[in-house]
């Protein structure tokens, strides 16, 4: 697999890639509501013949359920295009444990079903002598099952987390994610999980590329600490969309391991000229903005200003404002 676009393929960003790997929460939908333009973007990719995959850290739904949810929103998806951290975690446990081994499941029914389908036995109590604890997000997870999990890990059970996302995006704002629940056990046990399966680990991305036999995959995500870091670790180009968790201020503070190849306000960026989304900007002008001796001048779309400012900040500089609109953005992003 080779990261990077085929520059001879076309003038749209997506034309340089043979697979688009979508994150879901914050990219395609927010909890149970589609993000504007997501269905249209997927439909266009289907029409163009571009291969698609959906890779999600959310362990509360199975692949078929995710595909059903997407189709119900008008977003085309097949179950075999969906990779979940629940399925990946169950598969990893099946590789390490004997068939039928008891596994204490902290999470939703989807995670229990994946464990069962992997040939293992879901359990809920220390008395069942679990060989492992697998922990994924579930809206009903409470103190009782967390207490059983803590006891099992102390007794020697392998501790596997599907993912460590601190928050989940929602229309009401970020909500506690599986990482916050993992944090409860981390505090109680004073240790880290033995294995974290989901993003930013590269496994989901690598599996998606392998299944599609892709040579030039592009990852699209909304989180720098999972989607983008995972893409970087997998050697893939990435597009950050500003419809979910990570925003401009976090992007400007990000280390190299979390910096995307491109950034766009939403999925429409897939169909724009790649240089209109590249970060940082190559040159001193973009979309009505210009840099003059480190001063941001002009006006235009905030995302274009962001791409210009990133070049200054990531280079160790301190951008100054050369217009009222620039001053407003810099105050918001760099305060």
Could you characterize the architecture of this molecule?
This protein is of the alpha/beta class. Helix content is 35%, strand content 19%. A six-stranded parallel β-sheet has the order 5-4-1-13-14-15, with helices on both faces. The protein has a five-stranded parallel β-sheet with strand order 7-6-8-9-12, sandwiched between helices. α8 links the parallel β13 and β14. α3 packs parallel to α4 and α5 crosses α6. The mean pLDDT is 94.
Question: Into how many domains do the coordinates divide?
Answer: 3
Helical amount among residues, as a percent range? 25-40%
User: Uncertain segments of ≥5 residues (pLDDT<50)?
Assistant: none
The coarse overall form would be globular
Assess the beta-strand content as a share of residues: 15-25%
Number of strands: 19
CATH superfamily of the largest domain: HAD superfamily/HAD-like
The average pLDDT score comes to 94
CATH architecture of the largest domain: 3-Layer(aba) Sandwich
Main beta sheet: strand number and arrangement? 6 strands, parallel
Oligomer: single chain
Query: What structural class results from the helix and strand content?
Result: alpha/beta
Radius of gyration: 21 Å
Query: Span from first to last CA?
Result: 40 Å
Strand order of the largest sheet: 5-4-1-13-14-15
The name CATH uses for the topology of the largest domain is: Rossmann fold
Instruction: Give the C-level CATH assignment of the largest domain.
Output: Alpha Beta
Succession of helices and strands? EEEHEHEHEHEEHEEEHEHEHEHEEEEHEH
Please count the helical segments. 11
């Amino acid at each position: 697999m080779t990261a990077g676009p085929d520059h001879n393929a076309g003038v749209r960003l997506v034309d340089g890639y043979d697979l688009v790997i979508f994150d879901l929460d914050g990219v395609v939908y927010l909890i149970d509501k589609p993000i504007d333009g997501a269905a249209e973007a997927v439909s266009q990719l289907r029409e163009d013949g571009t291969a698609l995959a959906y890779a999600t850290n959310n362990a509360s739904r199975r692949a078929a359920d995710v595909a059903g949810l997407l189709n119900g929103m008008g977003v085309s998806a097949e179950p075999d295009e969906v990779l979940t951290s629940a399925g990946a975690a169950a598969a990893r446990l099946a590789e390490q444990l004997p068939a039928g081994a008891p596994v204490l499941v902290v999470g939703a029914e989807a995670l229990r079903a994946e464990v069962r389908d992997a040939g293992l036995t879901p359990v809920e109590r220390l008395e069942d002598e679990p060989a492992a604890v697998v922990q994924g997000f579930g809206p009903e997870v409470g103190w009782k099952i967390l207490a059983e999990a803590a006891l099992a890990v102390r007794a020697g059970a392998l501790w596997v987390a599907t993912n460590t996302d601190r928050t989940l995006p929602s229309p009401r704002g970020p909500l506690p994610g599986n990482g916050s629940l993992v944090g409860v056990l981390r505090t109680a046990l004073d240790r880290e999980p033995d294995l974290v399966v989901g993003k930013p680990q590269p496994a989901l991305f690598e599996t998606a590329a392998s299944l599609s036999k892709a040579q030039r995959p592009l990852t699209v995500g909304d989180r720098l600490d999972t989607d983008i870091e995972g893409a970087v670790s997998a050697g893939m180009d990435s597009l950050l969309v500003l419809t979910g968790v990570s925003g401009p201020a976090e992007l400007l503070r990000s280390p190299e391991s979390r910096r995307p190849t491109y950034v766009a306000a939403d999925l429409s960026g897939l169909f724009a000229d790649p240089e209109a989304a590249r970060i940082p900007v190559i040159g001193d002008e973009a979309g009505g903005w210009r840099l003059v001796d480190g001063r941001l001048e002009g006006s235009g779309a905030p995302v274009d200003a962001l791409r210009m400012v990133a070049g200054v900040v990531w280079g160790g500089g301190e951008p100054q404002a050369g217009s009222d609109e620039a001053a407003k953005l810099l105050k918001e992003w760099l305060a």
